[in-house]
From TrEMBL:
<dbReference type="InterPro" id="IPR032710">
    <property type="entry name" value="NTF2-like_dom_sf"/>
</dbReference>
<protein>
    <recommendedName>
        <fullName>SnoaL-like domain-containing protein</fullName>
    </recommendedName>
</protein>
<dbReference type="InterPro" id="IPR037401">
    <property type="entry name" value="SnoaL-like"/>
</dbReference>
<feature type="domain" description="SnoaL-like">
    <location>
        <begin position="8"/>
        <end position="99"/>
    </location>
</feature>
<dbReference type="Pfam" id="PF12680">
    <property type="entry name" value="SnoaL_2"/>
</dbReference>
Length: 130
C-alpha cells in the first residue's frame, strides 16, 4: 500500500497534501541550507515544486505503513535536465509527516532545481502562507 503523500503527489492533488503534514513539519530542501517550518509554508513550497518539475514520477517506495521513515525515489525533468531524487518522509504516531527531506542528483539537476525554485520562493516570500 502506498503512502498517502505518494498517492496525493501522483494524482497531482496538492490541495490534499497539507492535511498529511504535521502543524510543525520541517522541510529540508536540496537547494537551501536552512530548513523551512510549518504546514502552510511546506504546502506552499510543494505547490511551487509542482510548477517546476516536469514528467514527475515515483520509481520506488521503501517503508511500510504506520509511523517511521518512508523513502520515495523519483525521476523528473526541469527544462532539459534530468532529475533523480528521493523524498524522505518521517511520520509520527498519528501518521502525519513531521519531516520531509528532499535530495536530488546530479549536481546539474540540483542547480536546475535551485534556479527554477528561486522564482517560486520569491513568490512565496512575497505573499507568505499562513
Amino acid at each position: 500500500m502506498s503512502h498517502p503523500f505518494k498517492t496525493a503527489v501522483e494524482s497531482w492533488d496538492f490541495d490534499a497534501i497539507p492535511a498529511l503534514l504535521a502543524e510543525d513539519v520541517v522541510f529540508r530542501s536540496p537547494v537551501a541550507f536552512k530548513p523551512y517550518h510549518g504546514r502552510a509554508m511546506v504546502g506552499a513550497i510543494l505547490l511551487g515544486v509542482s510548477r517546476v518539475f516536469e514528467d514527475f514520477r515515483y520509481e520506488r517506495e521503501v517503508g511500510g505503513e504506520g509511523p517511521g521513515v518512508h523513502v520515495l525515489e523519483f525521476k523528473a525533468r526541469v527544462g532539459d535536465v534530468d532529475v533523480h531524487g528521493v523524498d524522505i518522509l518521517t511520520t509520527g504516531d498519528d501518521g502525519l509527516i513531521t519531516e520531509l527531506t528532499v535530495m536530488v542528483r546530479p549536481l546539474s539537476a540540483a542547480n536546475a532545481v535551485a534556479a527554477a525554485m528561486k522564482v517560486q520562493f520569491a513568490a512565496i516570500m512575497e505573499s507568505p502562507p499562513g
